[in-house]
Every structure is written in C-alpha cells, then in structure tokens.
Amino acid sequence: MITRPDPMYAGYRFPAAVISYAVYLYFRFPLSLRMVEEMLALRGITVSHETVRQWGLKFGREVASRIRQRRLAHGDKWHLDEVAISIASKKHYLWRAVDQDGFVLDVLVQSRRDKKAAKRLLRKLLKKQGRAPRVMITDKLKSYAAVKKDLKLRCEHRQHKGLNNRAENSHQPTRRRERQMKRFKSPRQVQRFLSIHDPINNLVHLRRDHLTASEFRAARAQAFAAWAEVAGAPLAA
To answer: Where are the transmembrane segments (predicted)?
Structure first.
C-alpha cells in the first residue's frame, strides 16, 4: 500500500488515484480522450478531455521513464519489423523490435526503409539493451543483413516472413490507436505517444498461454501492483 502521495502529483487538485487511473485507461486501451472523459464522468469525476491529454503527456512520460529504469528482463531473441504508416498524407515507416515473449524493446519512426534506417534502429537497440541478441529474426529486407555485417554482429540471423509474426502482430495495437486518433499528425507525435504507450503495455503485458484462471488473476494482480509502484497511486478512482 502507498502511504505517502507521490511528489509528482503535488499541486494538482485531483487525487493521484484519479490521475493514475485516467493515464492507465488512455495508454492501456484503444480509447479516445473523450471516451476516457466519459468513463470518468460515469464515476462522478468531471474533467475535460484536454485535461486528460495533459495528464497523459506529463504523467505518462514520467511513468514510462520509471518503467524503463526498472530494466525489466527481456529475451535474447529479437524480432525486427517495419510497417508503413501515413502521417499528414506522407508515407513513413514504423520500425519496431520485440523479444520472443512479445515485449516491445524499442520503436522508431523514420521516413526511410533502407540500410541507414535499419542501422539507426539496431544501434539504438544495442545501446539500450547493452548486449547483442542471440538470434535476430527479420523479414527479407536486405538492409538487415547489410547492417548486421557492418556492425559485426555474430548472432544468428533468420530471414523469413513466416517467422516474424511476433513483430508483425506487435503493430496491431498501434494500428488500433491510429484509427482511434483519426490518424497521426506528425512523426514527433507518433514517437512521443509510442514511447509512453509501449513501456506501459510492457509493464502490464499478460500472456494467457498455459495459464490457469487463478494463475492469470494472480499475474494480473501483480501487474496492477507494479503499476501502483511506478505511478505512485493504485488503480482506483
């Protein structure tokens, strides 16, 4: 149980639990700002969607930073993939890396789909993870192999579209948010949103595979407790 209010909520008239709950709803589920506003209104909490947006920017960024500091264990098998997205009627590419358990390792929005873009993603990954992968799985884009050679990585490299479903499936939450937000407005907006969205979803990432109902409920309770720790408030509004 949290006994002291987190200092990051100092000066706000709404309780920390309310702000924490709003931020959790917005980044955990494909909800619009107005949907979150309405869900809070059903609980008797009157707050505008613009306030929810400001909470998401300030507190979501801080929570995501705290999650990264926890350095959650990630696998040594990296799935890399890139998908085209439209931003302000221009084509961009969303590069994403996930491990074998579906945890997002990093995401990068770039205007290119070439060797330079692939190298930027891999360098960022190597720096953040502090180690090279044991296995790297990609589609058949030749840029990956070229970058692996340039960076002198000795990991096994598997190139096959069918093997990379893990990374391709990880794009689905972003696609849902893109529709809910009526398309992304700028590369900066996408990068900023996903830099908060993905760490939060990693924290509460629950796999139902081979779990009994009681085991799943226990894992969910543990995830809620982890949220209360990093957000400085329990999930109760």
So the answer is: 12-29
